[in-house]
Amino acid sequence: MAAFSGSSMKATNFRALSRFLAPTGTATLSNQVTTPSLRYAYPKEGVVTWFDNVAVPVGAKNRDNALKFVAFMLEPENAAIQSNFAGYSNGIAGSSKYMTDELKAAPEVNPPADIKAMFSQTCSKKALQLQDRVWTKLKQ
């Protein structure tokens, strides 16, 4: 998918990542409908970006059904339905033919190849352990 170097977290394969990226999604798309003069722009310094994941937690009670759901979401048509609803792109090959023309043309979902994308630093191991403990307590 991408390679990162050291703490700089610069994506070395932005083209591969661009299909996963959706810097703003529905908010900007809807603003352009209500305010047609609004235009999306990328700062020359670059953008902080992310991508979402679908995962099955360790110890999931219904693991088999969860895996079926993941497989369902990985189908191009289903991924496109979610993208069209949320206003975000996705990384599923073949899904773009099911996306709306508006979403496919949206600059905030399809960044130019020369835009610098940066991922934020991940939390420390200690912070991740705390987060895990908190979520585990909330689930109980």
Please give the number of β-strands: 2
Gap between N and C termini, in Å? Answer: 36 Å
Query: Main beta sheet, described?
Result: 2 strands, parallel
Query: Which term fits the overall shape?
Result: extended
- Coarse structural class: mainly alpha
Low-confidence runs (pLDDT<50, min 5 residues)? 1-23
**Strand line-up of the largest beta sheet:** 1-2
> Element order, helices and strands?
HHEHHHEH
Total helical segments: 6
Question: Helicity range of the residues?
Answer: 40-55%
On the 0 to 100 scale, the average pLDDT is 77
Tally of separate domains: 1
Global Rg: 17 Å
Beta percentage is under 5%
Give keywords.
single chain; 4% strand; disordered N terminus; 40% helix; mainly alpha; two-stranded parallel ribbon; extended; 6 helices; 140 residues
Overview of the structural elements:
- With 140 residues, the protein is mainly alpha-helical.
- It has one domain (6-139).
- Helix content is 40%, strand content 4%.
- The protein is built from 6 helices and 2 strands; from the N terminus they run ααβαααβα.
- It has helices at residues 14-18, 26-34, 63-73, 76-86, 101-105, 125-139, and strands at 47-49, 117-119.
- Strands 1-2 form a two-stranded parallel ribbon.
- The chain is extended and about 50 Å long.
- The termini are far apart.
- Mean pLDDT is 77; it is low at 1-23.
